[in-house]
Amino acid sequence: MEEQFILRVPPSVAERIERLLNENASSSADGALDISFSEDGRSGTFMIGNETFPASLLDLPCIVESYKTYDDNVLIKTADVGQIIMVKEEGDTSVEGVEYKHGLTPPMRDARRRRFRREPDLNPEVVARVEKDLLNIMSGGTVENILVNFLFLQVLQHVFWL
């Protein structure tokens, strides 16, 4: 089974990686690539040659599909990618939290806030009461209290657009 992730590196490191992959690894001065993570599994170090860079494993705001082609005509889906390894220069600020909130492309900038529905503000006590009354009605009983009855009707109107 294939596992995929996205590796985002600074431009200087990208040039070195490209040179390393295009040349014979034994003749290159950058010789080795290595990445290791600490105990938490989210932060670590990326090493190319003798230089080390801080790295962090972040969750993307949505799943990204990965495709490959053998004949430049037909695309075959190979994986769903949900994480990115972000490599930074030594002085750069690191991303806070476990989620990279900006996605991969400029249109996905701050995607969670702009594109996804917010969770509704529901009082957990009211939800529990309505759930209890629903279970009571389904088992042949009645609703206990008039206020809950009114809230129950509002929920039903919202759900069934009455």
Number of separate domains: 2
Across the major sheet, the strand order is: 1-5-4-3-2
Give the termini distance in whole angstroms.
Answer: 49 Å
List the uncertain runs: none
As a percent range, the share of strand residues is: 25-35%
Structural class: alpha+beta
- Count of DSSP E strands? 5
Arithmetic mean of pLDDT: 80
Helix content: 25-40%
Structural commentary:
- By secondary structure, the protein is of the alpha+beta class.
- The chain folds into two domains: 110 residues, no CATH class; 37 residues, no CATH class.
- Helices cover 29% and strands 28% of the residues.
- A five-stranded mixed beta sheet has the order 1-5-4-3-2.
- The model has no long low-confidence stretch (mean pLDDT 80).
Topology diagram in text:
Layout lengths: L5 E3 L2 H12 L10 E5 L5 E6 L2 E19 L5 E13 L23 H5 L8 H15 L7 H15 L2
Parallel strand pairs: 1-5
Antiparallel strand pairs: 2-3, 3-4, 4-5
Helix pairs in contact: 3-4
